[in-house]
Task: structure prediction
Amino acid sequence: MTKKITFISEEEAHTEAIASSLADIVQAGDVITLTGELGVGKTHFTKGLAKGLGITERVTSPTFTIVKEYEGRFPLYHLDVYRLEHSDEDIGFDEYFYGDGVAVIEWAQFIEAFLPEEYLSITIERTGDTAREITVEAVGKKYEPYIEKLEEALGRFGK
Amino acid sequence: MEKDYIILGIETSCDETAAAIVKNGKEILANVVSSQIKKHAQFGGVVPEIASRQHTEQITYVLEEAFRQANCTWDDIDAIAVTEGPGLIGALLVGISAAKALAFAKKKPLINVHHIAGHIYANRLIEEFEFPLLALIVSGGHTELIIMRDHGEYERIGETLDDAAGEAFDKVARTLELPYPGGPHIDRLSEKAEASIDFPRAWLDEESFDFSFSGLKSAVINYVHNEKQRGNEIDKAQVAASFQASVVDVLTEKTYRAAKRYDVKQVIVAGGVAANNGLRKRITEKFKNTDIPVYFPPLELCTDNAAMIAAAGSILYEKGRFAAWDLNGKAALPLT
Result:
């Protein structure tokens, strides 16, 4: 089974469209990590996902408060652990990773020890001023079917 | 109120563990913030941490120090005000649990305070309010314009659609490899160069009092990236000055327009970014030829502190608006 797929996004609107399609596939209890350098569009991706989940509230950066929660078809927990880079503290991650919603974690590499065994890893790479390559990878069997569903839904953005 | 009254304030919504004692909503008897104590090496210079562990360790020391500085006992305290939200839930709960336990044990009324109301009321410790007033709140977590027509009444007329201004400062600083928190470094570097790079300014539509700093952040990152690709040396001072000019332009212009539109009698700038010299200069300059006075709280009242929570709580005390025992921390809390 395919474990990994890469999409080409020429602009922010594409990134949001890709994320919005992912919203049709994810389920309550899922954990998604978002990796990529500063300003690459991680929060934009989350905005797209939120839209796809039927969230009408404005999604803003959670960097300062670390966690923001939104109500959609099910809750979206938007975490940004950027400020936990030099900390080893558990701020109650389990409530978000094993809760009733989808957890999206920016800068997840800073809290690797607290991540569940299985999660969906999304890496955004900068290929131009607005162009990005978005790689979605299943970490653990649970997420492998997601890759195929994404391929079906998003063939047009395929690399 | 005819009789003097004294409020104990507690604030733990983010990085700082803080306690303060304020008389009649205006006079600071004590204002203790954990990071300041650390500077005096009582805690061995631990790096400030975000989460609850640090707050739990420090809350009792901070409270004791506040009573010591104010030369007060529990008999002098009329009520306890505590930050209810918004903030990091684990951090908020430390302050709220302490406030509840103390209020119960010492038989004092408990008052719940909104963190942003606190930032606004920091100014009342310096200057009495005149309504209607306009408050610009700029910090690492917030960028908002708020109109107040009376004590305890807030109308938010604008907010950031993506990143807070202070967050943009921190992230640009990281891109320029400056230490955290980046705001003061960018401010200092800005004085050494001209704002010669034309970074975007997000005005949004003409009528809007909302802000957006995500595009600016990306433009700075793209600029630095592209210059590096070309093998050019980055002039950090020039990038810092140009970035800061963009943020300051938008904050100043929108504040000015809002002040005119709502015909306010006072403008208050609060939050950590209110400490920025470039912003202070520009806003002061812009309002110089108007009859609207602009107030910036002193530095120790700009950043998170508990005196501002006691000050905002004082208004609720006067109105007799107290919290119930089931008071809980709220990560997201609208200012109403």
